[in-house]
Protein backbone atom coordinates (compact mmCIF):
# COMPACT_ATOMS: atom_id res chain seq x y z
CA UNK A 1 0.00 0.00 0.00
CA UNK A 2 1.13 3.55 -0.69
CA UNK A 3 2.89 5.31 2.19
CA UNK A 4 0.16 7.92 2.56
CA UNK A 5 -3.03 6.91 0.78
CA UNK A 6 -4.82 4.22 -1.17
CA UNK A 7 -7.69 6.60 -1.95
CA UNK A 8 -8.38 10.34 -1.91
CA UNK A 9 -10.88 11.72 0.56
CA UNK A 10 -13.54 12.31 -2.10
CA UNK A 11 -13.22 8.89 -3.75
CA UNK A 12 -14.98 6.29 -1.60
CA UNK A 13 -18.33 4.90 -2.75
CA UNK A 14 -20.52 1.93 -1.85
CA UNK A 15 -18.42 -0.23 -4.22
CA UNK A 16 -15.47 0.24 -1.81
CA UNK A 17 -17.29 -1.26 1.18
CA UNK A 18 -15.21 -3.99 2.79
CA UNK A 19 -11.90 -2.73 1.39
CA UNK A 20 -8.88 -1.81 3.50
CA UNK A 21 -8.45 1.95 3.11
CA UNK A 22 -5.63 4.40 3.77
CA UNK A 23 -6.44 8.12 3.72
CA UNK A 24 -4.35 11.21 4.44
CA UNK A 25 -5.60 14.73 4.92
CA UNK A 26 -6.62 17.44 7.35
CA UNK A 27 -8.89 16.91 10.34
CA UNK A 28 -11.86 19.04 9.31
CA UNK A 29 -13.74 18.57 12.56
CA UNK A 30 -14.14 16.04 15.37
CA UNK A 31 -17.55 15.12 16.81
CA UNK A 32 -17.92 13.09 20.02
CA UNK A 33 -21.15 11.06 19.97
CA UNK A 34 -21.28 9.35 23.34
CA UNK A 35 -17.66 8.25 23.34
CA UNK A 36 -17.58 7.36 19.63
CA UNK A 37 -15.48 9.87 17.68
CA UNK A 38 -16.54 10.93 14.20
CA UNK A 39 -13.67 12.60 12.33
CA UNK A 40 -14.32 14.36 9.03
CA UNK A 41 -11.08 14.00 7.06
CA UNK A 42 -10.53 16.49 4.24
CA UNK A 43 -8.14 16.83 1.32
CA UNK A 44 -8.27 18.76 -1.96
CA UNK A 45 -10.68 16.24 -3.47
CA UNK A 46 -13.35 15.94 -0.82
CA UNK A 47 -14.31 14.74 2.63
CA UNK A 48 -14.72 11.29 4.23
CA UNK A 49 -16.31 10.45 7.56
CA UNK A 50 -14.00 8.34 9.73
CA UNK A 51 -15.17 6.57 12.88
CA UNK A 52 -13.07 5.66 15.92
CA UNK A 53 -14.66 3.86 18.89
CA UNK A 54 -13.10 2.86 22.24
CA UNK A 55 -12.44 -0.66 20.89
CA UNK A 56 -10.10 0.68 18.20
CA UNK A 57 -6.35 0.66 18.93
CA UNK A 58 -6.29 4.18 17.46
CA UNK A 59 -8.79 5.62 19.99
CA UNK A 60 -6.25 7.08 22.45
CA UNK A 61 -4.51 9.04 19.71
CA UNK A 62 -7.82 10.05 18.10
CA UNK A 63 -8.88 11.76 21.34
CA UNK A 64 -5.87 14.10 21.00
CA UNK A 65 -6.65 15.23 17.44
CA UNK A 66 -7.72 18.80 16.82
CA UNK A 67 -8.89 20.73 13.79
CA UNK A 68 -6.33 20.98 10.95
CA UNK A 69 -4.00 18.24 12.21
CA UNK A 70 -2.62 16.44 9.15
CA UNK A 71 -3.00 12.70 9.68
CA UNK A 72 -2.86 9.32 7.98
CA UNK A 73 -5.71 6.98 8.83
CA UNK A 74 -5.98 3.25 8.05
CA UNK A 75 -9.18 1.28 8.37
CA UNK A 76 -12.04 -0.53 6.62
CA UNK A 77 -14.73 1.07 4.47
CA UNK A 78 -18.22 0.21 5.67
CA UNK A 79 -21.81 1.28 4.99
CA UNK A 80 -23.05 4.15 7.12
CA UNK A 81 -25.80 3.08 9.56
CA UNK A 82 -29.35 3.45 8.22
CA UNK A 83 -30.64 7.01 8.45
CA UNK A 84 -27.18 8.62 8.68
CA UNK A 85 -26.44 9.06 4.96
CA UNK A 86 -25.31 12.52 3.87
CA UNK A 87 -26.70 13.13 0.37
CA UNK A 88 -24.73 16.38 0.06
CA UNK A 89 -21.42 14.46 -0.02
CA UNK A 90 -20.31 12.11 -2.82
CA UNK A 91 -18.90 9.92 -0.02
CA UNK A 92 -22.09 10.28 2.04
CA UNK A 93 -23.09 6.61 2.07
CA UNK A 94 -19.71 5.32 3.30
CA UNK A 95 -17.52 5.71 6.36
CA UNK A 96 -14.12 4.33 7.40
CA UNK A 97 -13.76 2.41 10.65
CA UNK A 98 -10.27 3.50 11.75
CA UNK A 99 -7.75 1.06 13.23
CA UNK A 100 -4.54 3.09 12.92
CA UNK A 101 -3.67 6.83 12.98
CA UNK A 102 -0.37 8.58 12.31
CA UNK A 103 0.00 12.31 12.92
CA UNK A 104 1.91 13.72 9.95
CA UNK A 105 1.69 17.37 10.91
CA UNK A 106 0.22 18.68 14.18
CA UNK A 107 -1.56 22.07 14.16
CA UNK A 108 -1.44 24.80 16.77
CA UNK A 109 -4.33 27.03 17.87
CA UNK A 110 -5.93 28.43 14.72
CA UNK A 111 -5.97 32.24 14.18
CA UNK A 112 -9.11 31.73 12.08
CA UNK A 113 -11.45 28.76 11.68
CA UNK A 114 -11.38 26.64 8.54
CA UNK A 115 -14.67 24.84 9.20
CA UNK A 116 -17.68 26.97 8.32
CA UNK A 117 -18.02 30.10 6.24
CA UNK A 118 -18.20 32.84 8.85
CA UNK A 119 -16.83 36.33 8.18
CA UNK A 120 -13.40 37.11 9.58
CA UNK A 121 -11.28 40.32 9.58
CA UNK A 122 -9.52 40.74 6.24
CA UNK A 123 -6.09 41.44 7.74
CA UNK A 124 -6.18 38.08 9.58
CA UNK A 125 -7.41 36.28 6.46
CA UNK A 126 -4.61 37.71 4.32
CA UNK A 127 -1.88 37.18 6.91
CA UNK A 128 -2.91 33.52 7.25
CA UNK A 129 -3.98 33.08 3.64
CA UNK A 130 -2.77 29.47 3.59
CA UNK A 131 -5.48 28.72 6.18
CA UNK A 132 -8.06 30.91 4.47
CA UNK A 133 -7.53 29.00 1.22
CA UNK A 134 -8.48 25.75 2.98
CA UNK A 135 -12.01 27.10 3.52
CA UNK A 136 -14.52 25.43 1.23
CA UNK A 137 -15.98 28.44 -0.58
CA UNK A 138 -12.63 30.10 -1.27
CA UNK A 139 -11.07 26.77 -2.30
CA UNK A 140 -13.96 26.25 -4.75
CA UNK A 141 -13.55 29.77 -6.15
CA UNK A 142 -9.87 29.19 -6.86
CA UNK A 143 -10.61 25.89 -8.59
CA UNK A 144 -13.37 27.60 -10.61
CA UNK A 145 -10.77 30.15 -11.68
CA UNK A 146 -8.49 27.32 -12.84
CA UNK A 147 -11.32 25.78 -14.88
CA UNK A 148 -12.34 29.13 -16.39
CA UNK A 149 -8.78 29.77 -17.58
CA UNK A 150 -8.62 26.24 -19.03
CA UNK A 151 -11.90 26.95 -20.84
CA UNK A 152 -10.54 30.23 -22.21
CA UNK A 153 -7.42 28.49 -23.53
CA UNK A 154 -9.43 25.70 -25.12
CA UNK A 155 -11.83 28.12 -26.81
CA UNK A 156 -9.05 30.41 -28.04
CA UNK A 157 -7.16 27.48 -29.56
CA UNK A 158 -10.43 26.35 -31.14
CA UNK A 159 -10.64 29.76 -32.83
CA UNK A 160 -7.18 29.32 -34.32
CA UNK A 161 -5.19 31.41 -31.83
CA UNK A 162 -1.67 30.55 -30.63
CA UNK A 163 -0.39 31.19 -27.10
CA UNK A 164 2.78 33.27 -26.85
CA UNK A 165 4.54 34.57 -23.74
CA UNK A 166 5.82 38.13 -23.84
CA UNK A 167 8.59 39.67 -21.65
CA UNK A 168 8.02 40.72 -18.05
CA UNK A 169 11.03 43.07 -17.86
CA UNK A 170 10.37 45.75 -20.45
CA UNK A 171 10.38 49.52 -21.07
CA UNK A 172 8.07 52.12 -19.56
CA UNK A 173 4.89 52.76 -21.56
CA UNK A 174 2.01 55.25 -21.19
CA UNK A 175 -0.86 52.85 -20.50
CA UNK A 176 -2.64 55.25 -18.17
CA UNK A 177 -1.12 54.25 -14.81
CA UNK A 178 2.25 54.36 -13.05
CA UNK A 179 4.78 51.70 -13.87
CA UNK A 180 6.48 49.44 -11.38
CA UNK A 181 10.16 50.17 -12.01
CA UNK A 182 12.99 47.65 -11.59
CA UNK A 183 16.50 49.13 -11.24
CA UNK A 184 19.18 47.58 -13.43
CA UNK A 185 22.37 46.41 -11.70
CA UNK A 186 24.24 46.00 -14.99
CA UNK A 187 23.19 49.41 -16.35
CA UNK A 188 23.52 51.86 -13.42
CA UNK A 189 20.86 54.57 -13.29
CA UNK A 190 18.56 52.78 -15.75
CA UNK A 191 15.32 50.96 -15.04
CA UNK A 192 13.17 48.24 -16.48
CA UNK A 193 9.40 48.46 -16.10
CA UNK A 194 6.96 45.64 -15.40
CA UNK A 195 4.38 45.61 -18.21
CA UNK A 196 1.10 47.38 -17.59
CA UNK A 197 -0.08 45.23 -20.50
CA UNK A 198 1.66 43.38 -23.35
CA UNK A 199 0.26 45.99 -25.78
CA UNK A 200 3.39 46.79 -27.78
CA UNK A 201 4.71 43.23 -27.78
CA UNK A 202 1.47 41.77 -29.10
CA UNK A 203 1.40 44.36 -31.87
CA UNK A 204 5.02 43.53 -32.68
CA UNK A 205 4.01 39.87 -32.95
CA UNK A 206 1.59 40.91 -35.69
CA UNK A 207 4.45 42.79 -37.39
CA UNK A 208 6.41 39.53 -37.12
CA UNK A 209 3.79 37.60 -39.05
CA UNK A 210 2.25 35.41 -36.31
CA UNK A 211 -1.35 36.38 -37.21
CA UNK A 212 -3.35 35.24 -34.13
CA UNK A 213 -1.94 35.66 -30.62
CA UNK A 214 -3.35 35.14 -27.17
CA UNK A 215 -1.92 34.94 -23.67
CA UNK A 216 -3.18 34.74 -20.08
CA UNK A 217 -1.00 37.74 -19.29
CA UNK A 218 0.07 39.16 -15.93
CA UNK A 219 -0.16 42.96 -15.89
CA UNK A 220 1.35 45.33 -13.33
CA UNK A 221 0.14 48.82 -12.44
CA UNK A 222 1.31 50.95 -9.55
CA UNK A 223 -2.03 52.63 -8.94
CA UNK A 224 -4.16 53.34 -5.92
CA UNK A 225 -6.40 50.41 -4.90
CA UNK A 226 -9.83 50.27 -6.53
CA UNK A 227 -12.87 48.17 -5.72
CA UNK A 228 -12.81 46.48 -9.14
CA UNK A 229 -9.06 45.92 -9.50
CA UNK A 230 -6.51 44.25 -7.29
CA UNK A 231 -3.57 46.46 -6.29
CA UNK A 232 -0.29 45.65 -7.99
CA UNK A 233 -1.09 42.91 -10.47
CA UNK A 234 -3.96 41.37 -12.37
CA UNK A 235 -4.42 38.92 -15.24
CA UNK A 236 -6.03 39.35 -18.62
CA UNK A 237 -6.90 37.24 -21.62
CA UNK A 238 -4.79 39.21 -24.09
CA UNK A 239 -5.62 38.89 -27.80
CA UNK A 240 -4.36 40.28 -31.13
CA UNK A 241 -5.25 39.43 -34.75
CA UNK A 242 -3.91 40.46 -38.17
CA UNK A 243 -5.87 41.47 -41.28
CA UNK A 244 -9.06 42.13 -39.34
CA UNK A 245 -11.78 44.72 -39.06
CA UNK A 246 -13.66 45.50 -35.87
CA UNK A 247 -16.36 43.06 -37.00
CA UNK A 248 -13.82 40.24 -37.27
CA UNK A 249 -12.67 40.79 -33.68
CA UNK A 250 -16.29 40.74 -32.49
CA UNK A 251 -17.02 37.54 -34.45
CA UNK A 252 -13.96 35.79 -32.98
CA UNK A 253 -14.34 36.87 -29.35
CA UNK A 254 -18.09 36.92 -28.77
CA UNK A 255 -18.43 33.10 -28.86
CA UNK A 256 -15.38 32.68 -26.60
CA UNK A 257 -16.70 34.97 -23.86
CA UNK A 258 -20.32 33.80 -24.25
CA UNK A 259 -19.16 30.17 -24.10
CA UNK A 260 -17.15 30.73 -20.92
CA UNK A 261 -20.11 32.42 -19.23
CA UNK A 262 -22.55 29.72 -20.32
CA UNK A 263 -20.20 26.99 -19.08
CA UNK A 264 -19.88 28.47 -15.58
CA UNK A 265 -23.16 30.39 -15.15
CA UNK A 266 -24.74 27.59 -13.04
CA UNK A 267 -27.97 27.78 -15.03
CA UNK A 268 -28.31 31.55 -15.11
CA UNK A 269 -29.30 32.88 -18.56
CA UNK A 270 -26.49 34.48 -20.61
CA UNK A 271 -27.27 37.00 -23.37
CA UNK A 272 -26.55 35.43 -26.76
CA UNK A 273 -27.17 38.38 -29.07
CA UNK A 274 -24.98 41.08 -27.59
CA UNK A 275 -26.21 44.62 -27.92
CA UNK A 276 -23.85 47.19 -29.47
CA UNK A 277 -24.18 50.52 -27.74
CA UNK A 278 -22.28 53.62 -28.87
CA UNK A 279 -20.35 55.25 -26.02
CA UNK A 280 -22.39 58.49 -26.24
CA UNK A 281 -25.66 56.52 -26.11
CA UNK A 282 -24.46 54.54 -23.09
CA UNK A 283 -23.79 57.75 -21.16
CA UNK A 284 -27.06 59.25 -22.34
CA UNK A 285 -29.35 56.31 -21.49
CA UNK A 286 -27.54 54.69 -18.59
CA UNK A 287 -25.12 57.27 -17.16
CA UNK A 288 -22.25 54.80 -17.52
CA UNK A 289 -19.82 53.43 -20.10
CA UNK A 290 -20.25 50.05 -18.40
CA UNK A 291 -24.03 49.94 -17.89
CA UNK A 292 -25.82 47.22 -15.97
CA UNK A 293 -28.34 46.18 -18.62
CA UNK A 294 -30.18 43.91 -16.17
CA UNK A 295 -31.73 47.17 -14.98
CA UNK A 296 -34.46 48.12 -17.52
CA UNK A 297 -34.41 51.86 -16.72
CA UNK A 298 -33.40 54.14 -19.60
CA UNK A 299 -32.94 57.85 -18.97
CA UNK A 300 -34.32 60.45 -21.37
CA UNK A 301 -33.67 64.10 -22.17
CA UNK A 302 -36.79 66.02 -21.10
CA UNK A 303 -35.30 69.51 -21.37
CA UNK A 304 -38.09 70.84 -23.63
CA UNK A 305 -40.71 70.32 -20.94
CA UNK A 306 -38.79 72.49 -18.45
CA UNK A 307 -37.62 75.23 -20.83
CA UNK A 308 -39.49 78.42 -19.93
CA UNK A 309 -41.45 76.58 -17.22
CA UNK A 310 -42.48 77.71 -13.77
CA UNK A 311 -39.67 75.68 -12.22
CA UNK A 312 -37.16 78.51 -12.36
CA UNK A 313 -34.10 76.51 -11.22
CA UNK A 314 -34.23 74.28 -14.30
CA UNK A 315 -35.57 77.00 -16.60
CA UNK A 316 -32.58 79.28 -15.85
CA UNK A 317 -30.12 76.42 -16.31
CA UNK A 318 -31.58 75.72 -19.76
CA UNK A 319 -30.81 79.25 -20.90
CA UNK A 320 -27.29 77.86 -21.42
CA UNK A 321 -27.55 75.68 -24.56
CA UNK A 322 -25.09 73.05 -23.27
CA UNK A 323 -27.29 72.29 -20.23
CA UNK A 324 -29.98 69.59 -20.21
CA UNK A 325 -32.52 67.97 -17.90
CA UNK A 326 -32.58 64.16 -17.80
CA UNK A 327 -35.42 62.04 -16.42
CA UNK A 328 -34.80 58.76 -14.56
CA UNK A 329 -38.06 56.75 -14.62
CA UNK A 330 -38.86 54.80 -11.43
CA UNK A 331 -41.56 52.18 -12.15
CA UNK A 332 -43.44 51.46 -8.93
CA UNK A 333 -41.61 54.21 -7.07
CA UNK A 334 -44.50 56.65 -6.77
CA UNK A 335 -44.59 56.96 -2.98
CA UNK A 336 -43.56 60.00 -0.98
CA UNK A 337 -41.45 57.83 1.33
CA UNK A 338 -39.40 56.39 -1.55
CA UNK A 339 -38.93 59.78 -3.22
CA UNK A 340 -37.79 61.34 0.05
CA UNK A 341 -35.38 58.44 0.56
CA UNK A 342 -33.88 58.98 -2.90
CA UNK A 343 -33.60 62.71 -2.22
CA UNK A 344 -31.70 62.01 1.02
CA UNK A 345 -29.44 59.55 -0.80
CA UNK A 346 -28.59 62.21 -3.41
CA UNK A 347 -27.68 64.67 -0.66
CA UNK A 348 -25.42 62.01 0.82
CA UNK A 349 -23.70 61.83 -2.59
CA UNK A 350 -22.88 65.55 -2.39
CA UNK A 351 -25.82 66.75 -4.53
CA UNK A 352 -28.28 69.48 -3.50
CA UNK A 353 -31.11 66.96 -3.91
CA UNK A 354 -33.05 65.00 -6.51
CA UNK A 355 -36.20 66.54 -7.96
CA UNK A 356 -39.09 64.16 -8.62
CA UNK A 357 -42.63 63.79 -9.91
CA UNK A 358 -45.03 61.08 -8.69
CA UNK A 359 -48.03 59.95 -10.73
CA UNK A 360 -51.08 59.34 -8.57
CA UNK A 361 -54.28 57.43 -9.32
CA UNK A 362 -55.90 58.88 -12.41
CA UNK A 363 -52.53 59.87 -13.84
CA UNK A 364 -52.20 63.21 -12.07
CA UNK A 365 -48.66 64.37 -11.30
CA UNK A 366 -47.72 65.22 -7.72
CA UNK A 367 -44.78 66.76 -5.93
CA UNK A 368 -43.06 70.18 -5.95
CA UNK A 369 -41.86 69.91 -9.58
CA UNK A 370 -45.31 68.98 -10.83
CA UNK A 371 -46.84 71.89 -8.95
CA UNK A 372 -44.33 74.31 -10.47
CA UNK A 373 -44.54 73.24 -14.12
CA UNK A 374 -48.30 72.50 -14.19
CA UNK A 375 -50.43 69.54 -15.31
CA UNK A 376 -49.90 70.03 -19.06
CA UNK A 377 -46.09 69.76 -18.92
CA UNK A 378 -46.32 66.97 -16.32
CA UNK A 379 -48.56 64.98 -18.66
CA UNK A 380 -46.17 65.59 -21.57
CA UNK A 381 -43.24 64.23 -19.52
CA UNK A 382 -45.32 61.19 -18.60
CA UNK A 383 -46.21 60.59 -22.26
CA UNK A 384 -42.54 60.82 -23.31
CA UNK A 385 -41.00 58.55 -20.68
CA UNK A 386 -43.90 56.10 -20.43
CA UNK A 387 -44.61 56.23 -16.70
CA UNK A 388 -47.89 54.92 -15.29
CA UNK A 389 -49.99 55.38 -12.17
CA UNK A 390 -47.88 54.52 -9.12
CA UNK A 391 -44.63 55.39 -10.90
CA UNK A 392 -42.25 58.27 -10.32
CA UNK A 393 -39.42 59.99 -12.18
CA UNK A 394 -36.34 61.73 -10.85
CA UNK A 395 -34.61 64.62 -12.60
CA UNK A 396 -30.98 65.66 -12.95
CA UNK A 397 -30.04 68.99 -14.55
CA UNK A 398 -26.95 70.90 -15.68
CA UNK A 399 -24.04 70.14 -18.00
CA UNK A 400 -24.32 66.42 -18.95
CA UNK A 401 -20.51 66.17 -19.10
CA UNK A 402 -20.52 66.90 -15.37
CA UNK A 403 -23.61 65.05 -14.15
CA UNK A 404 -23.77 61.84 -16.23
CA UNK A 405 -21.87 59.79 -13.64
CA UNK A 406 -24.22 60.86 -10.84
CA UNK A 407 -27.26 60.17 -13.02
CA UNK A 408 -25.92 56.66 -13.62
CA UNK A 409 -25.53 56.12 -9.87
CA UNK A 410 -29.09 57.33 -9.36
CA UNK A 411 -30.36 54.94 -12.07
CA UNK A 412 -28.55 52.04 -10.35
CA UNK A 413 -29.93 53.06 -6.95
CA UNK A 414 -33.52 53.20 -8.25
CA UNK A 415 -33.09 49.79 -9.89
CA UNK A 416 -31.74 48.26 -6.68
CA UNK A 417 -34.27 49.86 -4.33
CA UNK A 418 -37.29 48.90 -6.47
CA UNK A 419 -35.95 45.39 -7.24
CA UNK A 420 -35.99 46.10 -10.95
CA UNK A 421 -32.48 44.72 -11.56
CA UNK A 422 -32.61 41.02 -12.44
CA UNK A 423 -29.75 39.49 -10.42
CA UNK A 424 -30.21 36.04 -11.96
CA UNK A 425 -28.71 36.59 -15.41
CA UNK A 426 -25.58 37.77 -17.21
CA UNK A 427 -26.10 40.60 -19.69
CA UNK A 428 -23.13 41.10 -22.04
CA UNK A 429 -22.75 43.97 -24.50
CA UNK A 430 -20.26 45.81 -26.69
CA UNK A 431 -19.70 49.51 -26.03
CA UNK A 432 -18.40 51.02 -29.29
CA UNK A 433 -17.37 54.35 -30.85
CA UNK A 434 -15.31 55.69 -27.97
CA UNK A 435 -13.97 59.22 -28.41
CA UNK A 436 -10.33 59.24 -29.53
CA UNK A 437 -9.52 62.26 -27.36
CA UNK A 438 -10.79 64.12 -24.32
CA UNK A 439 -9.96 67.46 -22.77
CA UNK A 440 -7.71 67.16 -19.73
CA UNK A 441 -8.91 69.87 -17.32
CA UNK A 442 -5.89 69.47 -15.03
CA UNK A 443 -3.26 69.95 -17.75
CA UNK A 444 -5.50 72.16 -19.96
CA UNK A 445 -4.76 70.09 -23.05
CA UNK A 446 -6.22 67.49 -25.38
CA UNK A 447 -5.32 63.96 -24.27
CA UNK A 448 -6.02 60.38 -25.31
CA UNK A 449 -9.27 59.18 -23.80
CA UNK A 450 -8.66 55.43 -24.02
CA UNK A 451 -5.85 53.63 -25.84
CA UNK A 452 -3.24 55.76 -27.65
CA UNK A 453 -2.52 53.01 -30.20
CA UNK A 454 -6.08 52.86 -31.63
CA UNK A 455 -7.00 53.73 -35.21
CA UNK A 456 -9.16 56.86 -35.46
CA UNK A 457 -12.34 56.48 -37.46
CA UNK A 458 -11.56 58.34 -40.66
CA UNK A 459 -7.84 57.60 -40.39
CA UNK A 460 -5.20 60.23 -41.14
CA UNK A 461 -7.73 62.51 -42.86
CA UNK A 462 -9.77 62.78 -39.67
CA UNK A 463 -6.63 63.55 -37.63
CA UNK A 464 -5.69 66.30 -40.08
CA UNK A 465 -9.07 67.88 -40.69
CA UNK A 466 -11.42 67.22 -37.75
CA UNK A 467 -11.82 68.81 -34.33
CA UNK A 468 -9.94 66.23 -32.20
CA UNK A 469 -12.73 66.12 -29.61
CA UNK A 470 -15.19 64.95 -32.31
CA UNK A 471 -13.03 62.08 -33.59
CA UNK A 472 -14.24 58.61 -32.69
CA UNK A 473 -11.88 55.65 -32.50
CA UNK A 474 -12.17 52.00 -33.43
CA UNK A 475 -12.22 51.20 -29.73
CA UNK A 476 -14.62 48.97 -27.87
CA UNK A 477 -15.32 47.48 -24.46
CA UNK A 478 -17.21 44.41 -23.33
CA UNK A 479 -19.43 45.04 -20.33
CA UNK A 480 -21.30 42.62 -18.08
CA UNK A 481 -23.69 43.47 -15.26
CA UNK A 482 -22.17 46.89 -14.60
CA UNK A 483 -18.50 45.89 -15.01
CA UNK A 484 -16.08 46.51 -17.85
CA UNK A 485 -14.65 43.05 -18.50
CA UNK A 486 -12.69 43.70 -21.71
CA UNK A 487 -11.28 46.53 -23.75
CA UNK A 488 -9.74 46.66 -27.20
CA UNK A 489 -9.39 48.36 -30.54
CA UNK A 490 -8.26 48.27 -34.13
CA UNK A 491 -4.69 49.58 -34.07
CA UNK A 492 -3.21 52.59 -35.80
CA UNK A 493 -0.61 50.84 -37.97
CA UNK A 494 0.18 53.75 -40.31
CA UNK A 495 3.41 55.55 -39.19
CA UNK A 496 2.29 59.00 -40.34
CA UNK A 497 -1.10 58.59 -38.64
CA UNK A 498 0.55 57.34 -35.45
CA UNK A 499 2.83 60.39 -35.29
CA UNK A 500 -0.11 62.73 -36.00
CA UNK A 501 -2.28 61.06 -33.34
CA UNK A 502 0.42 61.54 -30.69
CA UNK A 503 1.15 65.08 -31.93
CA UNK A 504 -2.46 66.09 -31.16
CA UNK A 505 -1.94 64.80 -27.60
CA UNK A 506 1.23 66.90 -27.24
CA UNK A 507 3.97 64.42 -28.22
CA UNK A 508 6.55 65.39 -30.84
CA UNK A 509 7.71 62.93 -33.50
CA UNK A 510 11.08 62.46 -31.81
CA UNK A 511 9.35 61.67 -28.51
CA UNK A 512 7.24 59.05 -30.28
CA UNK A 513 10.40 57.53 -31.78
CA UNK A 514 12.18 57.62 -28.42
CA UNK A 515 9.31 56.08 -26.42
CA UNK A 516 7.90 53.64 -28.97
CA UNK A 517 10.93 53.08 -31.15
CA UNK A 518 10.44 49.35 -31.56
CA UNK A 519 6.88 49.63 -32.77
CA UNK A 520 7.54 52.76 -34.83
CA UNK A 521 10.40 50.97 -36.63
CA UNK A 522 8.24 47.90 -37.19
CA UNK A 523 5.59 50.02 -38.89
CA UNK A 524 8.16 51.06 -41.51
CA UNK A 525 8.64 47.51 -42.81
CA UNK A 526 5.22 46.26 -43.81
CA UNK A 527 2.64 46.51 -41.04
CA UNK A 528 -0.58 44.50 -41.45
CA UNK A 529 -3.88 46.01 -40.32
CA UNK A 530 -4.46 44.47 -36.91
CA UNK A 531 -6.55 44.69 -33.76
CA UNK A 532 -7.46 42.89 -30.60
CA UNK A 533 -8.57 43.21 -27.03
CA UNK A 534 -7.85 42.18 -23.46
CA UNK A 535 -10.44 40.62 -21.15
CA UNK A 536 -10.03 40.85 -17.38
CA UNK A 537 -9.68 37.30 -16.07
CA UNK A 538 -10.13 38.39 -12.44
CA UNK A 539 -13.38 40.25 -13.10
CA UNK A 540 -14.84 37.44 -15.20
CA UNK A 541 -14.05 34.90 -12.48
CA UNK A 542 -15.47 37.27 -9.84
CA UNK A 543 -18.77 37.58 -11.71
CA UNK A 544 -19.07 33.84 -12.33
CA UNK A 545 -18.28 33.04 -8.67
CA UNK A 546 -21.05 35.41 -7.57
CA UNK A 547 -18.88 37.72 -5.48
CA UNK A 548 -18.09 41.43 -5.68
CA UNK A 549 -14.69 41.13 -3.97
CA UNK A 550 -11.67 40.26 -6.13
CA UNK A 551 -9.85 38.91 -3.05
CA UNK A 552 -12.36 36.05 -3.00
CA UNK A 553 -11.08 34.70 -6.34
CA UNK A 554 -7.32 35.38 -6.06
CA UNK A 555 -4.72 33.16 -4.42
CA UNK A 556 -2.46 35.60 -2.57
CA UNK A 557 -3.85 39.14 -2.93
CA UNK A 558 -2.57 42.30 -1.29
CA UNK A 559 -4.69 44.37 1.05
CA UNK A 560 -6.18 47.80 0.26
CA UNK A 561 -2.87 49.44 1.19
CA UNK A 562 -1.09 47.35 -1.49
CA UNK A 563 0.69 45.26 1.17
CA UNK A 564 1.22 41.50 1.13
CA UNK A 565 0.58 40.62 4.78
CA UNK A 566 1.57 36.98 4.28
CA UNK A 567 5.03 37.54 2.77
CA UNK A 568 5.69 40.97 4.29
CA UNK A 569 5.95 42.89 1.03
CA UNK A 570 6.93 45.55 0.26
CA UNK A 571 9.99 45.36 2.50
CA UNK A 572 13.13 47.42 2.93
CA UNK A 573 16.15 46.54 0.82
CA UNK A 574 19.51 45.91 2.48
CA UNK A 575 22.36 48.40 2.13
CA UNK A 576 24.24 45.80 0.08
CA UNK A 577 21.31 45.40 -2.34
CA UNK A 578 20.93 49.15 -2.78
CA UNK A 579 24.67 49.57 -3.35
CA UNK A 580 24.66 46.87 -6.04
CA UNK A 581 21.78 48.61 -7.79
CA UNK A 582 23.35 52.09 -7.45
CA UNK A 583 20.17 53.29 -5.73
CA UNK A 584 19.88 55.68 -2.80
CA UNK A 585 16.61 55.89 -0.82
CA UNK A 586 15.20 59.39 -0.39
CA UNK A 587 12.39 59.01 2.14
CA UNK A 588 9.75 61.76 2.53
CA UNK A 589 10.02 63.98 5.61
CA UNK A 590 7.77 62.87 8.45
Describe the overall structure.
- By secondary structure, the chain is α+β, with helices and mostly antiparallel strands.
- The protein has helices at residues 59-62, 122-127, 129-132, 136-158, 199-207, 246-264, 279-286, 303-306, 312-317, 336-348, 368-385, 400-417, 459-465, 495-504, 509-515, 517-523, 537-544, 575-581, and strands at residues 20-33, 36-43, 46-52, 70-79, 94-105, 162-163, 181-183, 191-193, 212-221, 232-242, 275-278, 300-301, 324-330, 355-359, 365-366, 392-398, 428-432, 437-440, 445-448, 475-480, 483-490, 530-536.
- The strands form 5 sheets. The chain has an 8-stranded mixed sheet, sandwiched between helices. A 5-stranded mixed barrel has the order 1-2-3-5-4. The protein has a 5-stranded antiparallel sheet with strand order 12-13-16-14-15.
- 36% of the residues are buried.
